[in-house]
Amino acid sequence: MSRSSILLIAPVFLASVAGGVFILNTDKQVIVENTTLPISGGSTEPQDIAAVATSTEITKEELIAKAEAVIYETQKFIDEEKAKSALIEAAQEKSSKVKGIYIGSGRPNNFKTLLEQTELNGLVVDIKEAYGQNLPVSVKGFISQFHEQGDWMIARIAVFRDSSLINEKPDWYLATGTVAGATTTPLWRDDAGQYWLDPANEEVQNYIIEFSKKAIDYGFDELQFDYIRYPDSYYRVPGAEKIKAIGNFFSKLSKELRDYKPSIILSVDAFGYVATQFNSYEIGQRLIDAGSYFDYISFMLYPSHFYGGFIMLEDSKRQIPAVYFPYKDESATSTDYLVSSNPYQVISRSIFASIDYLESHRLKAKIRPWLQDFDLKADTARGIFYDAEKVRSEISAAEDAGSSGWLLWNPSYIYTKEALKNE
User: Fold this and answer.
1) Are residues 270 and 204 part of one domain?
2) How many domains does the chain have?
3) pLDDT per residue over 136-184, tens digit each?
4) Half-sphere exposure of 85 (CA within 13 A, CB side)
5) H helix runs in 118-222, sequence order
6) Which domain, by its residues, includes 13?
7) Distances in Å between the alpha carbon of 54 and those of 58, 64, 147?
8) What is the pTM of this model?
9) Residue 346: count of CB within 10 angstroms of its CB
10) How many Cα atoms within 13 Å fall on the side-chain side of residue 186?
C-alpha cells in the first residue's frame, strides 16, 4: 500500500483512538477539530483540543507508523486465513478420491508395490486398538515415504474399546452393577473379554483428544475413529443418554481437533445398517450427529455381515424397485438371492439411502465405505467366495452410487489385486 494511502487512512485510525474528528488539509497536516472527550464520572464536556493534542503528542509520522502497523497486521491476518482455507480445500479435494486398504499396525512397506501398481492411493494404519496405543516414532518415517509418492495416510483409532488402562484408571471404565459385599464395582466386559472406556467421562474424552493431537503431529492426513460408541450389549445406560453422550463427544472432538489443525480430515466408522436405518440407540450413534461433525462416514458395508438380511423399499427417485435378500434360507437350493451373493445391490442401495439422508438435512459429510475383501466361513461353507468379481462389484457399486472413494478391509491384510485397476 502506498504512503499516500496510509496518510488518508491514518486520521481515521487516530480518530478511533482519541475519539475526535480529524481531517487532512492540502498541506498534509493533521488538524484536530473541536470535539467532546470523556472525563471522569462518565460525563463529557468540551475541552481545549490543543491541550489534548499536546498531551497525546502524536505526530504525523507516529500516526502513519501506527496506521502502517494496523494495516500490516490486518493484511497478515487475511493472508493467513487465505492460506488456511487453501490447505482445507486441498485436503478435502484429495481425501475425496482415496482408494485405500487397511494394513493394521503391520509393515507399510509390504504394500508399497501394490500401491504403485494399482489404483490404490491410501493406507489405513492402526495407532490405537483394544490393547492401547501404538504410535512409535518410526511411524513418522513411513508417513513421509508414502507422502513422497502422493499417498493418503489415515490413522485408525479404536476409541472406547480399550483395555489398556484398567489398572491405572479403573474409574474411567464402564462398570457392571454393584455386588453385595464388594469393595469396588466390577468393570464390565464384552463377549470378547474386552473392557470399554466410559464415553461420558470427561477425562476419557480428553485422553482421546490429546492422543489424537499427537497423531496429527506425526503427520497423518486423516484420523479415522472406530468404536466411537457404546458397546451394543451394555444396557446400564438408557439409549437417549447414549445418544447425548456420543453426540456431545462428536462435537467436542471435532471442534478441538479442527482448532488444533484446521486442515485435518476426520472420519468415523459405523455399522452397515446405520446407512439405511440412520439411528442406533443401542450404541448411541445417529447419522445426523456423525454427518454434522465428520468429513467422512465409513459404513462397514460387508454383505456377509448383514445377519438379518437386507431390505430396501422402492427408490422412486432413481426408479429402483424394492429388494429383499435374506441372510440364509435353509429350504433354498441356490444361494444367488442371499445377501452375501448380492454385493452390488447392498453397497449401492446403502450409499444412496445415506447420501439422500445427509442431503435432506443439508449436511456436507461424504460417504467413503468399507468394502469386503475377505471370506467368511459361513459363506464359504455354502459356496460363496469374495473373489475378484465380487470385490470389483462392490467397488463399482460404491463409485456408481456416488461415494467419495472407498476402503478395502481384510483382517489378514491380503488383498485381491485382480479386483483392482492397474495404475
Assistant:
1) yes
2) 2
3) 999 999 999 999 999 999 999 999 999 999 999 999 999 997 544 545 7
4) 6
5) 138-148, 202-218
6) 3-78
7) 8, 18, 62
8) 0.83
9) 29
10) 10
